[in-house]
Amino acid sequence: MTALAEECSDILRGEHRQVRDLLLGAIEAAQEGSPVRMRAPLGEIAALTGPHFRYEEEALYPLLTSIFKPEYVEHLLGAHDDAIAAARRLVELAGQRSLSDGEAREAVGPLRGILPHVSDCDGLSIMVELLDEPDVQVILDTRERSLVAGLDLLEWADRARSRPTLREPAAQGGAAGAAEGLPAVRV
After folding, report:
1. Per residue in 22-44, pLDDT tens?
2. Are the C-beta atoms of residues 111 and 24 closer than 8 Å to each other?
3. Looking at residue 171, what DSSP letter applies?
4. Measuring CA to CA, how many Å separate 131 from each of 2, 9, 44, 134, 138?
5. Which of 2, 45, 79, 85 has the largest count of CB atoms under 10 Å?
């Protein structure tokens, strides 16, 4: 593995750990019925995942089509669709004064649902090792541009994402991606 591939893998792993830990904090707050406590981790997740999803979709996933079947890459993109759709509902729930038991369960489902995507994507970091160094540099350069743009998940999805979000919150059945895009300012 080149030093550049190792750097990229370390970055991916670090970001996935951060999202995992923030998701667990948001789950705990939702289980307590506290939208106020949900806001901080959801806002941090939003700030992290806007740039993260962007460089995954614009650089990493297209490069992985040389390794994986197109259906798997489409599955990864679908998980992002789910995350974006769920985030929209979680923004509403986190904006309330309190959560009913049913609303707390509604929030916990998608928050837990995104955890498998986080762990699956963390496994992609070892696939980066198989890419040529110029391709790894493309990922890192795209990541840097995404960080400079500073769009949270919903801002990126609404203003800059090249793929339309294909799923609506109700179609998710409580799975996938919920907290990955809740802007701290708007919650």
Report:
1. 999 999 999 999 999 999 999 99
2. no
3. G
4. 10, 11, 30, 8, 11
5. 45
